[in-house]
Amino acid sequence: MTEPVRLSKRLAEQLGCSRREAELYIEGGWVTVDDQLVQAPFLKVLPAQRLDLLPGAKATEVPPVTLLMHKPAGQAVPQDAAAALQLLTAAGHWADDPSPIQPLQRHLLRQNLLLPMADEASGLVVFSQQREVIRLLTDARSKLEQEFIVEVSGEPEANGLALLGQGIGHRGKILPKAKASWQNETHLRLAIKQPQPGELRMLCEAIGLRVLGYKRIRIGRLSMAKLPVGQWRFLGEHERF
Question: What is the reported pLDDT for 11?
């Protein structure tokens, strides 16, 4: 019985190309095995299985991408890249994504979770393979503003929202300044630069409010907009944080 071999090796032999070129064809979504699209170069195939190269195939690198996800409240987002793949699935891609990029398995691999939120929070979460985006969102000096909708209960102290904009103290700590306004009777809009874990709750507590939940709706200039809960889309070519 002939042993199975790696798909990239078999394809390279079939096409008379290098192993690296074969890997690029496979990762680019150009190769089928018995009429099934396969994007894993390491997959083992048998000699009897048929390999085909789709029309228009190009052996080019798949450029790195950044993904935007609408995280549901209560869902943990693992910081480990491999574990995060449980959330970044092909089925979770937003059907109305305006990006012309065709999703590939390669887009979901080796993604870095940036600006993570607490499990109970919801809203905009960023995953990226792009070095420039990773540098921007992890650089403490960038001070990108983030905007949240915060559900609260209780009665705020007089002039409380104005105090938040001045850098209020709470539990022996001076909290960062925050732009605050009422969206309705139970929801605040808070804009704050690089909030640290727990600071949103502390800001609200400092003026007599209790946080029931919160959603991040913007990072820098980038809004979550109409992205449905639990789904993700590509960062557009001309979009900037």
Answer: 95
DSSP 8-class letter at 185: S
- d(Cα 161, Cα 157) in Å, to the nearest integer? 9
Question: Would you give the end-to-end CA distance of the chain in angstroms?
Answer: 56
Helix (H, G, I), strand (E, B) or coil at 171: coil
Instruction: State both tokens at 167.
Output: 């850098």
CA distance 151 to 214: 6
CATH architecture of 66-141+228-234: 2-Layer Sandwich (3.30)
Please state, in angstroms and rounded to a whole number, the distance separating the CA atoms of residues 199 and 223: 21
Which class is domain 5-53? alpha beta
Q: Which residues of the chain have pLDDT under 50?
A: none
Contact (CB, 8 A) for 220 and 62: no
* Single pTM value for the model: 0.84
Look up residue 93 and give its DSSP letter: B
CA nearest neighbour of 25 among 44, 10, 11, 42: 11
Residue-wise pLDDT for 183-192, tens only, equals 999 999 999 9
Per domain, the residue ranges of the chain are 5-53, 66-141+228-234, 145-219
pLDDT confidence of residue 85: 65
